[in-house]
Every structure is written in C-alpha cells, then in structure tokens.
Amino acid sequence: MSDSYVRPAHAGDGAALGAAHARAWHDAYTGVLPAAALATATPEALAAEWEDAAVAPPSPRHRVLVACAGSTTAGFAALVPGSDEDLDPARAGELAILVIDPARQREGHASRLLTAVVADAVSDGVDTLVTWVLENDKPLYDFLTGAGWAADGATRELWVDETGGAVIRQVRLHTAVSPMP
C-alpha cells in the first residue's frame, strides 16, 4: 500500500512548501531566469507566501493542494479562478503552479496533484483549466501535454528584472474538464 497522497494545505505547511518551491525553481530555472530573480526565491520568503495562501485564501475557489510521501511534502499545486480577460471566471480555473521537489520527482506526485486539481475544479463547476508555462520549460510542457493539455495560442511576456531587460515568454495551455459519469 502506498503512503503517497494529496491533501489540502493547512496551517503550518508554509515552511515545507517554501522549501520545495525554492529547490524546484533553483533546479529548473538556474540559467533560464536572471540570477537576481532567483535570488528572491528563498525558502523563507516563499514560506510566508504559501502559509498565507494555505490559511487565508482570497476565495473558496483558491486552493493549495499538497502531495505527500508519508509525512514528507513532495510537492504542491495551486488552483485559482481563471483571470485572463478572454476567460469566463465562473467557468474557468487556473493551475497557478505545480511544483515537485527535485528529490521527489518521477514518483507520481505530479499526476496525483493534477488529478486532485481537476477534481476540485469540477466540484467548483469549472469546465476549462488553463496554466501558463515558460516557453522553454520542456519538462513541464511535456508532462502537461502528455496529460491531455494543449497550447491554445495565447502567449505573454514577463519582465523578470527591474530594468525590463530580461524578458521570458510563456505559453498558455488548456484542457477541458467535466464531471465523471
């Protein structure tokens, strides 16, 4: 019997979520994002943000889900209402982030989190999920497209330094979701 599962985030999860987030971002985005942008991704700074998200979500449709391996936090995902101008916020949700600690990758945690996100979205009456992926984040892009997500043609550019000199491109992926029969 597996001791891997997904549960809602709760008070006290911030430190573990912040540490996993920092490790995952530094592992995946060193050399992709400017060093100054990554320098702000400290476990402590991220812990405070994720603790707030866990204990005081801005709406009932804002959720943080935690993937666990026994008592260890393996990763997490956040589901929020869709906020892009071309989406109906009542019918669309957004996978705001999907993070798996580098030490826990390839253990099925991302798949379990994605399944839980879809289930929560369906319970909210959502019929479309979207997410934004860095254009050159091939592992995440491949994982999501392998799970049935597809690019919908939307792109955006984000300036990731104070001078506006460092720009990253993102592509939006989407998937239709529906209640299980």
From TrEMBL:
One Pfam family matching this protein: Acetyltransf_1
Ranges where the N-acetyltransferase domain occurs: 4-174
Keywords tagged on the record: Acyltransferase, Transferase
Keyword Cell membrane set for record: no
Keyword Lipid biosynthesis part of the UniProt annotation: no
PROSITE patterns, A to Z: GNAT
MF terms (GO), sorted A to Z: acyltransferase activity, transferring groups other than amino-acyl groups
CDD domains named among the record's database cross-references: NAT_SF
Protein name in the entry: N-acetyltransferase domain-containing protein
UniProt organism field: Embleya scabrispora
